[in-house]
Amino acid sequence: MSTARSTPLHDEHVALGASMTEFGGWMMPLRYGSDIAEHTAVRTAAGLFDLSHMGEIEVSGPGAGAALDHALVGWLSTLEVGRARYSMIAQHDGAVIDDLVVYRTADETFLVVANAGNAEVVLAALEERVAGFEAQVTFTSPEVALVAVQGPRAAEILLSLTEAGDADAVSGLRYYAITPATVAGTPLLVARTGYTGEDGFELFVENGAAVALWRALLAAGEPLGLVPAGLSARDSLRLEAGMPLYGHELDLTTTPFEAGLGRVVRLDKTDADGAPVDFVGRAALESRKGSQPARVLVGLKVLGRRPARAGYPVVVDASKLDVVVGSVTSGAPSPTLGYPVALAYVTPEFSAVGTVLAVDVRGRGEAVEVVETPFYRRPRA
């Protein structure tokens, strides 16, 4: 029997006819009907996602900022209250344990959000790394549900349920920021980050209020085109937006530099006395900065109709399937663009935009072109 955990919204998904699947140790909705319809709704109106499988970890105390500077590759002590930052936690050899979003909810309090399958690993690493700092680590995830509204009508839907006194704070929320608010009569935290390439909001709410919030959002959003959306749509949306998925583009064999995310590694961070911060993984990452990585993450546009799936070899051309130059990490048809796209690691000499390669799709070469990412950018008003 499966030992996967259920989110507080499990029965809501079942009642809506969702196909459930195990993901990161949780039973999650894969789709409610059509993958493409859910994907398209997020691009044109809005989608409602259950993200309660994600791991929430609070780091608090007078030394919380300094502790996170030591524990993570980013410079979190400089984060303003109410803002968020994308970061990573690395091993001593520089490989990525997990990619994270860190919110500063108060002067001495940070909320670290980890991927579902890595939450307990990140928790253990943080507990070990904050030793010696004036900081405490608390695993708040078991008490917290997380719901996301994503799409061009997300703000309109959310504001229709937001208490009048909080409406300005929510409507004026900047990208990668967080604020307390009351939504559908429930006090919660509203963040504006997202993983789909669209505007959107994440709502951190106590487990006991999750069902009422979910139902209120569905009711308010349905007339505007909102639909519940599952993991399948979330994956195709994040792929179009060129966003990495742990276990695919990031893992324990990959450094931030190979993934094209070297910008999150803050080798320039200093402590209160101006001395360089000796964070975990610093020496290994410092030695790699500026050097050519053995492989580079690139975007691929498939020139034919057959999608390049994760694990498929990237080859020098369709007639030379034995000359492997890389491997696909994520790939699928793009509902928005009308052709398949993929992310892949290739050797540097084949990474330039415009390079034509091929992917070995079950013994047959499918031509691909290296293109810039993200594949999709949402229209700006």
Order of adjacent strands in the largest pleated sheet: 11-12-13-10-4-14
User: If you compute it from the alpha carbons, what radius of gyration comes out, rounded to the nearest whole angstrom?
Assistant: 21 Å
Give the helix proportion (percent range): 10-25%
Tell me the major beta sheet.
6 strands, mixed
Note the run of SSEs as H and E.
EHEEHEEHEEEHEEHHEEEHEHHEEEEEE
Strand content: 25-35%
State the end-to-end distance: 50 Å
Morphology call: globular
Explain what the structure shows.
- Helix 2 crosses helix 8 and helix 5 packs across helix 7.
- The chain is α+β, with helices and mostly antiparallel strands.
- The mean pLDDT is 97.
- The chain is globular.
- The protein has a six-stranded mixed sheet with strand order 11-12-13-10-4-14, sandwiched between helices. The chain has a six-stranded antiparallel barrel with strand order 15-18-17-16-19-20.
- The longest helix has 12 residues.
- Helix content is 20%, strand content 32%.
- It contains nine helices and 20 strands.
Provide a brief overview of the structure.
This protein has 381 residues and is α+β, with helices and mostly antiparallel strands. The protein has helices at 10-15, 35-44, 64-71, 119-129, 154-161, 167-171, 210-221, 231-240, 282-288; strands at residues 5-6, 19-23, 26-31, 46-50, 55-60, 84-90, 96-106, 109-114, 136-139, 144-150, 178-183, 186-191, 200-206, 226-228, 296-302, 313-315, 324-333, 340-346, 356-361, 364-371. The chain is built from 9 helices and 20 strands.
